[in-house]
Design goal:
mainly alpha; Rna Polymerase Sigma Factor, Chain: A; Arc Repressor Mutant, subunit A; 2 domains; 8 helices
């Protein structure tokens, strides 16, 4: 459950931003930047070059779409994470399409895979997960919430979250192993 005072605070900041208050934007930015950057780095498999681009693009979209932010639905940082997740999925699809298009050229030029390191494989594996699986892994390992905290946040039982975590870890492991197998071919 979200703290009602946090909801009110974000509603006030959103309204101030819509009136053109730059100080309100700075507060939202300062409150959210570290969480957003950590999330994006995690999703990018620690590829800082990818993360920097996604962080910038996320903020540009947030500026354009601030009217759509509903503090009743999610806190601002989580809304930003949703934007970033969509950007990452689109970017990775585009990157994979480009790699496949260039694959014959790459194969002629070198023996190794176009997916060059574990960071890229992690990012690609995360992009294959369902939103629910990705979100539960993010809350457990990035936000370091307990199973009980996640269950409370989601309105589910701890046992249901434990089961979901087991399935999400397995889905990630399978996706990652496919990337490793692909790289070794």
């Amino acid at each position: 459950m979200r703290d009602p005072s946090q909801i009110q605070r974000e509603a006030f900041l959103r309204q101030a931003v819509l009136r053109g208050d730059e100080a309100a934007w700075k507060v939202l930015y300062d409150d959210s930047f570290v969480l957003l950057e950590r999330y994006i780095l995690w999703r990018c498999g620690q590829r800082r070059d990818w993360a920097e681009e996604i962080v910038q693009e996320t903020w540009l979209i947030a500026v354009r779409k601030i009217r759509e932010f509903d503090q009743q639905q999610a806190q601002f940082a989580r809304w930003l994470s949703g934007i970033a997740g969509n950007l990452l999925r689109n970017q990775l699809r585009k990157w994979l399409k480009d790699v496949k298009r260039r694959s014959p050229l790459i194969d002629e030029a070198r023996e190794d895979s176009p997916v060059e390191n574990d960071g890229e494989r992690i990012a690609l594996a995360l992009s294959e997960l369902s939103e629910r699986n990705e979100r539960v892994l993010k809350q457990k390992y990035l936000e370091q919430l307990t199973v009980e905290q996640i269950a409370s946040d989601w309105g589910e039982t701890p046992k249901a979250i434990e089961s979901l975590l087991t399935r999400a870890r397995e889905a990630f492991r399978e996706a990652f192993e496919r990337k490793v197998d692909h790289a070794s071919k």
